[in-house]
Design brief:
By secondary structure, the protein is of the alpha/beta class. Helices cover 28% and strands 23% of the residues. It is built from 5 helices and 8 strands. Strands 4-5-1-6-7-8 form a 6-stranded mixed beta sheet, with helices on both faces. Strand 6, helix 3 and strand 7 form a beta-alpha-beta unit. It is globular. The chain starts with 15 loop residues before the first strand and ends with a helix.
Length: 201
């Protein structure tokens, strides 16, 4: 498109827009992931951690974290000319889970971000998407200093279905995150095709 007009002989492309959730435990890197790939300035709803929240915000393992998402993160990335993803990062703490149902409405799929040092923190997200039949992939955020485990070990630890992709990633790296997003889209499309086949078959 040049100055709002399409090139001669080319029809304008109306992109398909898809909604992807980014979920996981407190301090796992959801805000970082959205910010790493968003082509617009990401919308963030972060607030400083306070003494009042200390009893309910478990910062063990993420002692350097001073802010927390209280509503959502939002970003956008164009994967192809005809495919745009809207990313919605969910808040990690239990007390904000009431927002998840609203954010999950209309979602194609989700990324459950995991930290192997606090793997139990993503159990709730895995359970949430399994119960609602929302296709998801597990992205293991490879923090510096954290032990590396084979993806199959992570799958067993989380008791995941064999069809759920588990991928290693760096939530700070644009290309790494793009690979995870492509995995989500492919997995969600395969999941939808299989469900259609089951219904019509």
């Amino acid at each position: 498109m040049i100055f709002g007009r399409t090139e001669r002989g080319k029809a304008p492309v109306e992109p398909v827009t898809l909604k992807i959730l980014v979920a996981g435990g407190f301090g796992v890197g959801k805000t970082t992931l959205v910010g790493a790939v968003s082509e617009i300035k990401p919308l963030r709803t972060e607030e400083l951690l306070t003494e009042a929240g200390r009893p309910v915000d478990d910062t063990s393992g993420v002692e350097g974290k001073h802010t927390t998402t209280v509503a959502m993160d939002f970003g956008r990335i164009t994967l192809r000319e005809d495919l745009v993803l809207y990313l919605f990062g969910t808040p990690g703490q239990d007390r904000f889970w009431f927002l998840w149902d609203e954010l999950a409405t209309g979602a194609l799929g989700a990324i459950v971000l995991a930290d192997t040092r606090r793997l139990e923190d993503c159990f709730a997200a895995v359970d949430y998407f399994e119960r609602r039949s929302i296709p998801f992939v597990v992205g293991v955020n490879c923090f510096e200093g954290a032990s590396r485990y084979p993806t199959e070990d992570v799958r067993q630890a989380l008791d995941l279905d064999a069809a759920v992709p588990v991928v290693l990633c760096d939530a700070r790296g644009r290309e790494s995150v793009k690979e995870v997003l492509i995995e989500v889209v492919q997995h969600a499309m395969a999941y939808a095709a299989e469900r259609r086949h089951t219904v019509t078959g």
